Amino acid sequence: MSIYQRIQDLAKQKKLTVRDIERALNYANGSLRKWKDNANSQKLVEVANYLGVSTDYLLGRDASPSKGKDKGANVVD
């Protein structure tokens, strides 16, 4: 499943359209559709945060959409 397909599925689950996500994040109309071929890493992080999932899920590296602490991530206070 592509990044764009995962975004579409998550949008449906949250009763949103892809355009709703683009508007909320101030992206140009159709910009997420371009992710079928290539994704901007900063925007990928923004979309994952907006949808409440991990970037690994959007990239297909994790089967679970739940957002957990990244493996190996250190939090510095």
From TrEMBL:
GO molecular function terms attached to this record: DNA binding
Source organism (scientific name): Ligilactobacillus agilis
Domain HTH cro/C1-type: 7-58
Xref: InterPro entries: Cro/C1-type_HTH, Lambda_DNA-bd_dom_sf
Region (Disordered) residue spans: 58-77
Biased composition (Basic and acidic residues): 67-77
CDD domains attached to this UniProt entry: HTH_XRE
Tree of life domain: Bacteria
Protein name as catalogued: Helix-turn-helix transcriptional regulator
